[in-house]
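Onboarding guide, step 5: your first structure request.
Type a short instruction followed by the sequence, for example:

Predict the 3D structure of this protein.
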Amino acid sequence: MYQDLSKNPYAQPFTFEGSRSHGVLVIHGFTATPGTVLPLGQAVAQDGHYVRGILLPGHGTTIEDMQRTNWKDWYDAAFNAYDEMARICKKVSVVGLSMGGALTCLLAEHRPVHKAVPIAPALKILQHGSRLAKYFWSLVPILPGRDKNYQDYLFDYDVCYHDTPVKNIEDLNHLALLAKRDLKKITCPLLVVKAGQDQSVHPDAPKWIILQSSSVEKKLLVLPNSPHVCTLGAERQLLFRKVAAFLRD
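The system replies with structure tokens like these:
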């Protein structure tokens, strides 16, 4: 039996009430929880936006729960959350970290997103052997995690599964391929964030979005000293300021 994250307050979805003229949907990453994007959501909410951070299916509870979900569950959850916000908000922007960044791209490709902020977007993961996950997950169902030894990092908010269900790596790969395939369909303003010390996703993923999207307004923010979860890293305040300003303009 693996750890149960369901009682951790940072594993819960969050909502900050604000003006319904502009809603901001915030999406966490693979094996993670809303806690990893909560400080960013709080910063964005200070401008008076209606902000909602969702909890994707199979996350924030146990690895066993995650093994019972797949890419379609996460895709549907993101699209349902966007559609719900679009019914109550005049315009909706999307901010997503890692797999949430891939989902942000997918939403921008298929919904009238006002502005999109993919952060360390998981359009191709670097995990060794990830492409073979679908062949070996029944033999090696769980991949042990690694400890994080970062300076100036909000560890309390980094609520996630320490280990990785191998079956779901293939689901992540599938989402990444879906998002990367139709980047040209993105036309909304973009702020794409690259974490300079990212060891989880391909370093060129942010550049792919910039080069292949059809958006007229697109900016690349590079955080040279930040890990993959840059929302909790040493350059987080710079990230918060840039994202808030982008959504404000």
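Each response can be followed by summary notes, for example: The first helix runs from residue 38 to 45.
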